[in-house]
C-alpha cells in the first residue's frame, strides 16, 4: 500500500513554503527577506558560530521526494484538519513530516545541539500540538551531503529531553539520517529516535544514467559550454593509458599524497590524472618550505609526519599541478557532480577513485566512487576504509577476483595507501593483452553494477528506506 506523505509547514509565501530551521528570533527577518526576494525560497537562519550572522537556507530533500512521488506533497499546517476529516482518511496510510533544515548554515548536529536554540521555538503551537498528539506526525533531520563530520551524541540527549518534556512516548517519532555509515553504529536506548544512513548518492546516481539514455548520451548543462556523457559499451581495445584518477582539490591531502606515491613508483605517467592548483595547497607548500625541518600539521587521523611533508614538498614540482582539460579549480568544481565525459573512461582500463577524505572516522560514498560504476570502469579507492565492504552490502560486486582488495580493511591511512599503491603498480605492469582479457572477464560485473545503480533510483528505494524507519522498534 502506497503511503500518502505530507510535508507540513507553518508559513507559505509567494515563492513557496518557508523551510524550517528559523526560530522566533529570526522569524521577523524571514518575513522581510521573503518580501524582498520573491524568487528565492530560502529560509533565513542564524549561524551557530555567530548568531548575528544570518544565512539563507534552501531546503534540500523534500522537493526531491515530491518530484518523483505522486503521493508526496507539501501542505500548510491549516490544511491538516481538512485532510484528516476526509471520508477515506487512514492514519496508518498517512504520514505528516516536519523537516528541520540547516545544511547551508552548518551540519544539523552543530546547528540544533546549540544550547541557545529551543526546539519549542521552531514550530508553531498548532503544529507542535499535532506532533505531540498524533502518531502519524514525524520529525525528520536528513543530511544528504557528504558525511564528513562527527555525530554529536548530545543532539540525541537534547531530543530525548524535549520529548520527555512534552510527554511524547510513541516510538519512531524522530528520524535522524546522514550519508555516513558510521551513524548505524550509534546504539540508542531511546526508541523514539531512529538513525540510519540514507546513502543518498548511491540512490540518486541512477537518475543521470536514465537521463543520458533518454538524451542520446549527451547532456549539455545550461550556461556551461561542456557536454556530459557516459561510456555505454565496453571496448576491448588497447588503451592510451592504464588508469584514470580525478583529484581536482589538491588541498585534500590524501590526494597529493597518493599522486606522490604514484610518482615515486614510476607509474604516474601511465595514467590520466588531475590535481589542480589551489590556493589552500599552495599555502601548505609555502609553510612546509619555510619550516622544512619542523613542519607538522594534523589532518584528521591521516597521521602525516614531518618526513611525509618533506617528501611531498621535495617532489611536488615534478608533478604539480596536473590538468586533464581545465586548469581552473573553481570552474571544474561547478561541473556536474555525477557526470563528466566518457572520453577519459574509454581511454583507460580502470579508475583510482580519490574520495572526499580518507579518515577512518567516517564512511560514506559519493559520486566520485559512483562515476566509474556509471562508466563501466573497474576501480580501486583512495578513501575511507571499508568502502568496498559497504558497496558489497548494498549489492554491488567488486574486483577481488582480479586483485587484492584487502587494503579496504586497513584502518591506518599510510599502511592502506601502501597496500593500495602496491596493487596499482601490479595492474600497471600488466600487458595490454592481459588487461583486455580481464575486462572481458569483468564484463558481467561492470554491466550488473551499472544496472543496479539505475534500478536503485527507478525503484524508489531511497523513499522506501526512509519509510522503513517508522516500522522499527515496533512490537509485533
- Unreliable spans are none
Describe the strand arrangement of the main beta sheet, using strand numbers: 6-1-7-8-9-10
Oligomerization status of the protein chains: single chain
Hey, roughly how much beta strand do the residues contain? 5-15%
What's the alpha carbon Rg, rounded to whole Å?
A: 24 Å
Envelope shape: globular
Mean pLDDT: 93
End-to-end Cα distance: 19 Å
Q: Which structural class matches the secondary elements?
A: alpha/beta
Helix-residue proportion: 25-40%
Number of strands: 16
- Helical segment count: 18
Largest sheet: 6 strands, parallel
Describe this structure in words.
The mean pLDDT is 93. Strand 2 (12-13) and strand 3 (16-17) form a beta hairpin. By secondary structure, the protein is of the alpha/beta class. Helix 8 (206-214) crosses helix 17. The strands form five sheets. A six-stranded parallel beta sheet has the order 6-1-7-8-9-10. Helix content is 36%, strand content 13%.
Summarize the structure.
With 476 residues, this protein is α/β, with parallel strands linked by helices.
Keywords:
6-stranded parallel sheet; 4-stranded parallel sheet; 13% strand; alpha/beta; 16 strands; 476 residues; globular
Amino acid at each position: 500500500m502506497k503511503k500518502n506523505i505530507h510535508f507540513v509547514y507553518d508559513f507559505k509565501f509567494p515563492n513557496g513554503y518557508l523551510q524550517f530551521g528559523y526560530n522566533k528570533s529570526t522569524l521577523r527577518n524571514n518575513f522581510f527577506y521573503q518580501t524582498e526576494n520573491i524568487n528565492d525560497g530560502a529560509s533565513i537562519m542564524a549561524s551557530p558560530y555567530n548568531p548575528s550572522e544570518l544565512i539563507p537556507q534552501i531546503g534540500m530533500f523534500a522537493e526531491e521526494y515530491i518530484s518523483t512521488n505522486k503521493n508526496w506533497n507539501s501542505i500548510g499546517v491549516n490544511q491538516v484538519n481538512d485532510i484528516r476529516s476526509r471520508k477515506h482518511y487512514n492514519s496508518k496510510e498517512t504520514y505528516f513530516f516536519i523537516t528541520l533544515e540547516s545544511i547551508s548554515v552548518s551540519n544539523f548536529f552543530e546547528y540544533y545541539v546549540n544550547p541557545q536554540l529551543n526546539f519549542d521555538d521552531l514550530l508553531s503551537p498548532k503544529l507542535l500540538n499535532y506532533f505531540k498528539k498524533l502518531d502519524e506526525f514525524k520529525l525528520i533531520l536528513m543530511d544528504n551531503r557528504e558525511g564528513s563530520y562527527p555525530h554529536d551524541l548530545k543532539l540525541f540527549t537534547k531530543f530525548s529531553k524535549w520529548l520527555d518534556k512534552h510527554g511524547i512516548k510513541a516510538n519512531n517519532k524522530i528520524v535522524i539520517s546522514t550519508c555516513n555509515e558510521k551513524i548505524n553504529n550509534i546504539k540508542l536506548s531511546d526508541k523514539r529516535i531512529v538513525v540510519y544512513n540514507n546513502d543518498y548518492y548511491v540512490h540518486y546516481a541512477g537518475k543521470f544514467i536514465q537521463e543520458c539514455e533518454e538524451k542520446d548520451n549527451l547532456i549539455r548543462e545550461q550556461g556551461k559550454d561542456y557536454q556530459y556523457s557516459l561510456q555505454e559499451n565496453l571496448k576491448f581495445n588497447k588503451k592510451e593509458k592504464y588508469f584514470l584518477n580525478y583529484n581536482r582539490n589538491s588541498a585534500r591531502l590524501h590526494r597529493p599524497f597518493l599522486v606522490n606515491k604514484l610518482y615515486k613508483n614510476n607509474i604516474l605517467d601511465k595514467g590520466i590524472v588531475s590535481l589542480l592548483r589551489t590556493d589552500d595547497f599552495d599555502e601548505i607548500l609555502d609553510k612546509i618550505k619555510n619550516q622544512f625541518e619542523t613542519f607538522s600539521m594534523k589532518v584528521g587521523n591521516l597521521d602525516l609526519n614531518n618526513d611525509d611533508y618533506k617528501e611531498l614538498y621535495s617532489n611536488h614540482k615534478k608533478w604539480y599541478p596536473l590538468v586533464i582539460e581545465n586548469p581552473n579549480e573553481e570552474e571544474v568544481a561547478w561541473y556536474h557532480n555525477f557526470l563528466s565525459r566518457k572520453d577519459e573512461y574509454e581511454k583507460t582500463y580502470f579508475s583510482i577513485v580519490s574520495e572526499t577524505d580518507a579518515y577512518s572516522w567516517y564512511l560514506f560514498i559519493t559520486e566520485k566512487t559512483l562515476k566509474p560504476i556509471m562508466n563501466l570502469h573497474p576501480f580501486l579507492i583512495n578513501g575511507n576504509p571499508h568502502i568496498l565492504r559497504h558497496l558489497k552490502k548494498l549489492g554491488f560486486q567488486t574486483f577481488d577476483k582480479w586483485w587484492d582488495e584487502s587494503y579496504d580493511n586497513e584502518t591506518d591511512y599510510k599502511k592502506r595507501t601502501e597496500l593500495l599503491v602496491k596493487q596499482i603498480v601490479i595492474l600497471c605492469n600488466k600487458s595490454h593483452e592481459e588487461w583486455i582479457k580481464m575486462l572481458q572477464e569483468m564484463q558481467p560485473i561492470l554491466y550488473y553494477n551499472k544496472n543496479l545503480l539505475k534500478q536503485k533510483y527507478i525503484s524508489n528505494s531511497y523513499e522506501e528506506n526512509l519509510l522503513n524507519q517508522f516500522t522499527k522498534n515496533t512490537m509485533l
